[in-house]
UniProtKB/TrEMBL annotation:
Family annotation (InterPro entries): DctM (IPR010656), TRAP_DctM (IPR004681)
Gene Ontology, cellular component aspect: plasma membrane
Organism listed in the record: Mesorhizobium australicum
NCBIfam families, alphabetized: dctM
Alphabetized PANTHER family for the sequence: SIALIC ACID TRAP TRANSPORTER PERMEASE PROTEIN SIAT-RELATED (PTHR33362)
Oligomer status and interactors: The complex comprises the extracytoplasmic solute receptor protein and the two transmembrane proteins.
Principal localisation: membrane
Function, as annotated: Part of the tripartite ATP-independent periplasmic (TRAP) transport system.
Protein name in UniProt: TRAP transporter large permease protein
Amino acid sequence: MELFVLLASFILFLVLGASVASAMIVSAVLSLLVNGLPMTIMAERVLSGINSYTLLAVPFFIFAAVIMNRGGLTDRLLEVARCFVGHFRGGTAQVDVLASIFFAGMSGSATADAASQGRILIPHMKKEGYDASFAAGVNSASATIGAIIPPSITMVIYGSVTNISVGALFLAGIIPGLLVGLALMAMVTFLSARRGYPRQPYMPWKDRWRPIWTAFPALLAPVIILGGIFTGATTPTEAGVIACVYGLLLGFFVYRELKVKDIMPLLAETVEATAVPVYIIGAGSVFGFALTMSGFGFMVQDMMTGLVEGPTAFLLVVIIIFMLVGLFVEGTAAMLIFVPVFMPLVQQFGIDQLQFAIIVIITLLIGTITPPVGLQLFIAADIAKLSVFKVDIWPFVAIMLVVVLAIVFLPGLVTWLPGVIM
């Protein structure tokens, strides 16, 4: 009865247009009432869900992303990317993907990546003759790299939920993130050749040094941030603070695009952006408790044990589940709901936890670029002035799924680097 009330009310509120977090809280409250439990449990679960030192890294990395967007780092990284791939087929779209790889090493936010690069590159692509649907598709897909290559806000949240080392998750994401970037560039090349999209003039090496030198301080940011984490000198939270300080130094004294009057708007934007994931995490903690009380975890585990017979089949079923869930539920919420349920099965099948984590993270990120609720897709579609259903996203979804399947069958893509360094 409790499980029926919980799931039925959750789905009902989603259908009525409530946010995922609000639907989780209200349905959890109804379930607790049916169980006869006191409402003080809800407050306790919300606070315990967000009371984490690891989660302190989230607002710092969001602040760092905001600083870098406003402080001139994004523009200079785009110029460096243009130097190297602008002359490829579909040059401006290639710039979008490569710049996402650069930006990923500093911000850890797919949303910030989609918004900052999209405002610059989508209008450029449209002027150069690219279809608006393609421009929005490549921008939203490339933005996911920001949450795969470290530092990653998504990995910080995953680590806080599962107690897996965030540093190990960061290392595990490097090779898959680069593979996603290369796969997207290959798809851009293929589609651009078929559709006749332009390339930019080849830039001689003697002309590349100036933009590279100008962007050199920005390019050092990933080295400083990740170097501290991987050497053990800093925790991910401390690295987030360093990212903020370094971004402010560049914005004020090197690129001189920040003024003292900009600090309050930057902080306000950070608080607003931080509120969303924190609200979802708190709501997910209450909802997860209600699921546990209703026996949902045991039911799913029994069903999966009877459905699959080995680790590969289990991972393939997990990918299908998260793909379907990602169509309708925000990625962080889906992670909070399902990952704790699946973790006992991960251990039962002997699957490496880092392999499972990266598979889940990339699959959920695919959900952020698929209609009807994909956040990165909404951002890119809004910039391109399109409906989300008209964005040419499915070729990029397909190529990202190829990378996910490669990780299923070649776990060393995830586990090799952490095994060497840690």
